[in-house]
Amino acid sequence: MRKKICALLIFAVLLSALTGLNVFAQSNKALRPVFSHQGGFYTQPFELYLSVQEPNTRIFYTLDGSVPVPGSEGTFEYSGGILIRNRTDEPNDLSMIRNVSNDMFQGWIEPKGQLFKGTVIRAIAVNQQGITSDVVTRSYFVDPNGIQRYKLPVISIVTDRDNLFDNQIGIYVNGNYEMRGKEWERPVHVEFFEADNTLAFSQNAGIRIHGGYTRKYAQKSFRLYAREEYDEKKWFEHEIFPGLKAKGTGESIEKFKRLVLRMSGNDSQYTMFRDGLMQDLVSHFNVDTQAFRASVLFLNGEFWGIYNVRERYDDRYFQIHYDLDRDKVALLSIAGTTAESIEVDEGTEEDAQDYRNIINYIRQNNIKDSSTYEYVNTKLDLDSYIDYLITHIYFANTDWPANNQTLWKYKTDNREYNPNAPKGQDGRWRWAIRDTDFGFGLAYGGQVNHDTLSYASTEGRGFGAPPAWSVFLFKTLLENDDFRNKFINRFADHINTAFVPERVNEMIDKKSGDIAHIIDEHNRRWNKIEDWNKEVNILRDFANRRPSFVINHIVNRFRNNGVSQSASINLSTDIEKGYIRINSIDINEKTPGVKDPANWNGVYFGGVPVTIKAIPNEGYQFERWEGVNEDIKYNDTITINPQNNLSIKAVFKKTSSGGRMMGDINGDNVINSSDYVLLQRYILNISDLKLEDKYAITDLNEDGEINSIDCAILQRYVLNIITSLPHK
């Protein structure tokens, strides 16, 4: 590092003396070296040529990730083609640096054999006046299979090795990797290649070490920052997570200020996608989640392994997802093995006190009182909290609730609840999912039969029990009947849709399939996954067996509250005419986990009433239920206590052009004997039908006539001999 600085100063003095110009003058973009080949993957070696438009201009380049400094060691003056080839046969470099971890379980281990290596070129041009161009950086990888070697996005980070591995300033080495803040951010160049070898973006950025305890591991997580001070590109602009929609606005997200390159945390010895799987499973819940995408990372051209590209919770995340003023975001992280400790990630200490005040209010008032409960719901988004609880409980995450609690809110102008505000901007605290690696059957986490519901809602004693502060809010809210029933029903809704084993296994297969072909290469680099296929099968076993355990846990936990048993509810309808909503979920193909909306089955709980609603499609109208008591048969919304297994069908009728159902002659939204009498009187010429669209309502076989045949059809329908109209 000192040699480079000295060389740069000497170079500046000489050029200043010769030209009278400052070498540090503003860069001339027109001077930028032109590369003959775009960065990316190639199947054959080739000669790379550099050029510049301005005559009598010298080009300097490096191959080690450092910024070219004429006269410095490692900087070469360009004189002809540069051979770009597969460099795997060259000795491993950065991966051989040992002082990167003090952890006894995931410390430094020498890679198994030679790692795959690309070539990174950084080049500048200097003209006769001493003006230096911007640095141009390109990464090249040569393999017979080209980009098909990985079939994933490839990220190349290029930087002076001292920025990562120098004992004084390197952020990756012992003594430094625990450091945080802007002063421990280093400049890098980032290239993001899509799986089809398309260059998504190439720009300068900042990098920091990311994570908590996992900073100690040899493989570390990184955080990338797009900043104007590094590059004219102020954002990472690309659809990094295909299909990602903003939580609040529903708009597509195609730009990011910060990105996390996560090494899979506590799961890095097991599957390399556990947290991403869990968060993607619940990304449609009423909680915030961090998008996930598997990728391959290279540092200065050297293979660094599988990394998970993730969003990061900060003011920018909420700005992008909710279209709000990021200066009004409060973000808290709460943890503590004995006492509660609140860390303010965004906002002020006043925001932390605001949350404490709400908890104290709950301690001092009776949550069973409706007025208390309603007031709490103006401070805490309890629907968000319920989905947050269900997520961790289903996943059996035992690194919670005493750790990894994350919540945020938008601070309204008057600091009061605004029920009419857009989603996320009403002033209430909402919850976010973070670091769930201990869940889903992790070796030393919660297993498939773990009663996480009782674990998180009772004050346990002994080793491993969560402290009282961490279970207080959930335990207390469960004393309120409305909250408890909503929690149970919402849990059942998710068990019946999001957590259906078929859906979960499909996602496991997709995520494992994305990286299966490079697990061996990753393991040669880090040597820490003993049996990857076994670990993936543990996920599948969890997916298949977890629902039945959770159902039993719910019955056992709430038996004293009147929950007697689980019961199956079958809901059926003609999906061309309408669909059914049960509690909070629509039984249609738009709901994740619903495969057959025409004949759907779900599990609910005796003692916890469910609400079922029939919703007609355009051109149809609800007529009646089948399989329910007569007194509610014609109500489009019904509430039932599922003490036993039930089979319920929603029957819809075609409406006339005026919106009335076929057969509903008197317009009371019910088809019965009164309609039959009116039709019979019309056919006998006793009375007329005062209908604007007579044929649409009374031509029940659609033959273009209204006669005794239609009267007979209506009679059979009223007597339940036939079940649908029209009838031909």
TrEMBL record:
Signal peptide per UniProt: 1-25
GO molecular function: hydrolase activity, hydrolyzing O-glycosyl compounds
GO BP: any one term: polysaccharide catabolic process
Keyword terms of this UniProt record: Signal
Entries under SUPFAM superfamilies matching the protein: Type I dockerin domain
InterPro entries: Bacterial_rp_domain, Dockerin_1_rpt, Dockerin_dom, Dockerin_dom_sf, Fn3_assoc_repeat, Spore_coat_CotH_CotH2/3/7
Domain named Dockerin: residues: 658-727
A Pfam family hit: Flg_new_2
Entry superkingdom: Bacteria
Protein name: Dockerin domain-containing protein
Species per Swiss-Prot/TrEMBL record: Acetivibrio saccincola
